[in-house]
Amino acid sequence: MEPLRRKALIDATISAIGERGSLDVTMSEIAGRAGVSSALAHHYFGAKDELLQATMRHLLSELGADSRVSLREATNPRERVLAVIAANFSDKQFQAGTIAAWLAFYVEAQKSPAMRRLLRVYARRLHSNLMSGLCALMPRSEADRVAEGIAALIDGFYIRRALKDGTPNAASAIAVIEDYLETKLHQQKADK
Amino acid sequence: MEPLRRKALIDATISAIGERGSLDVTMSEIAGRAGVSSALAHHYFGAKDELLQATMRHLLSELGADSRVSLREATNPRERVLAVIAANFSDKQFQAGTIAAWLAFYVEAQKSPAMRRLLRVYARRLHSNLMSGLCALMPRSEADRVAEGIAALIDGFYIRRALKDGTPNAASAIAVIEDYLETKLHQQKADK
DNA sequence: TTTTGTTGATTGATCCGTCAATAAACAATA
DNA sequence: TATTGTTTATTGACGGATCAATCAACAAAA
Fold first, then answer.
1. DSSP designation for A91
2. Contacts of B17 (CB under 8 A, 6+ apart)
3. How far apart are the first and last CA of chain B?
4. Burial of A130 by CB count in 10 Å (0-12 exposed, 13-18 middle, 19+ buried)?
5. Per-residue model confidence as pLDDT tens digits over B54-91
6. Residue B37 CA to nucleotide D5 C1', Å?
7. A184: phi > 0 → left, psi -120 to 50 → alpha, else beta; which?
8. Number of H-type helices and E-type strands within chain B
9. Which of A31, B98, B143, B171 has its CA 20 to 30 A from that of B90?
10. Within 13 Å of residue A95, how many CA atoms lie on the same side as its CB?
């Protein structure tokens, strides 16, 4: 029962955050969505921030898994980079609820060391995933810079989704980022 | 007296948000920082979200003013773009408190239409400021895309500051963004 | 019967917003 | 100038609402 409930509560947390748009969701709200009492949520998670952290870890591991799958299909360095970008803007990831949760967690990270730690894991992983492709395409120092740029672009488009009404368009975000990459690759070839 | 108090309360709001890292600051906390009672804060602003909105507007107008000053010193299109970037990462803007406030407002925008409206003003202004330089350097459609990229990069580096401990380094952020711009300009010249 | 699952009720804390009351500044008037 | 009236500034205290967390109690497996 326990794993079931935990999963349901975490899912409920994401959808609640997604709907409300911030971490300002009550335990009762979350528990209600999961079809249980708030007391049960406390029973399984102890305190609210532990539930939030578990939710964050869940998001993190889902993105990690998606990235790995996406990377496995890549057959060359360039495709590896594209795969990482694609994973971040897949339908599963680039969704209102998930995006809202990421943003809220970024804010939370400013006061919660635990959250900050988790976000750093995300950042490091993203960087190294990007580098795994970029390193073969340009000198290390240049690759580092481009990876930082792409990472900032990804987070930037995530945050900017907060401005748009209606459906977020992952397509145009991908287009801009890929254009950045292609331009960079082109430049590398020219320099050689 | 009124203008004095309003200013003090808005400044107190920014510093409180900056220190706590989120909008989860109480009226008492803010009022205390401004050296007045919480009742007075209510007297001048009515409700908490009005104070928060006033704070957001203040941030917005400060950034707008800084951008205008920075732009005035530019003597050619390329410098105009650089000026906009520089304004966003000036010591005055790229500061822990201010950054925390921007992020928190982004999250708030997901549930508050008023905040969303203000952030859209910011986004539009940034875009048009960037376009004022880019349009002279490349075709409009390309300029649009580059402007979107730079805007996302700026917001991306802002949000990523939440991960770093210690002082935020505006310098490396500027370096990446300017590198992006230069690469793009180079590409334009080559295409011609 | 021991362990696991589950809840309703409750507690204690926090916090927004209001209000009545006081003080200070200001205006009017005799 | 002295006095009276009026608006502005300011606060302490409080009502009312919300919410996290606890707990005692009950049901259901094992």
1. T
2. B23, B25, B55, B97, B100, B101, B104
3. 61
4. buried
5. 999 999 999 999 999 999 999 999 999 999 999 999 99
6. 28
7. alpha
8. 9, 0
9. B143
10. 14
> Measured in whole angstroms, how far is the alpha carbon of residue A73 from the centre of its chain?
20
If we measure between CA atoms, which residue out of A130, A62, A112 comes closest to residue A91?
A62
Asked if strand D contacts A25 at the CB level, meaning under 7 A, the answer is yes
Burial of B11 (0-12, 13-18, 19+ CB in 10 A): middle
Kindly list the distances between the CA atom of residue B94 and the CA atoms of A145, A187, B91, B128, B162, in Å, as whole numbers in the listed order.
20, 31, 5, 21, 12
What is the CA B58 to chain-centroid distance, rounded?
11
Chain A interface residues facing chain B, Cβ-Cβ under 8 Å?
Answer: 20-22, 100, 103-104, 106-111, 116, 119-120, 123, 145, 148-149, 151-160, 162-163, 172-173, 175-177, 179-180, 183-184, 186-187, 190
* Chain A residues with CB-CB distance to B176 below 8 A: 145, 148-149, 152
**Mutation choice for B interface testing from A52, A106, A184 by most B CBs within 10 A:** A106
pLDDT of B167 strictly over 90: no
Q: How many C-beta neighbours within 10 Å does residue B83 have?
A: 23
CB-CB contact of A66 with B69 (8 Å): no
CA torsion through residues B43, B47, B52, B54, sign: negative
Residues in B 31-70 whose C-beta is less than 7 A from nucleic strand D are 35-40, 43
pLDDT per residue as tens digits for the range A115-130: 999 999 999 999 999 9
| b/e per residue B148-181 (b: at least 16 CB within 10 A) | bbbbbbbbbbbbbbbbeeeebebeebbebbebbb
Provide the 10 A C-beta neighbour count for residue B97: 17
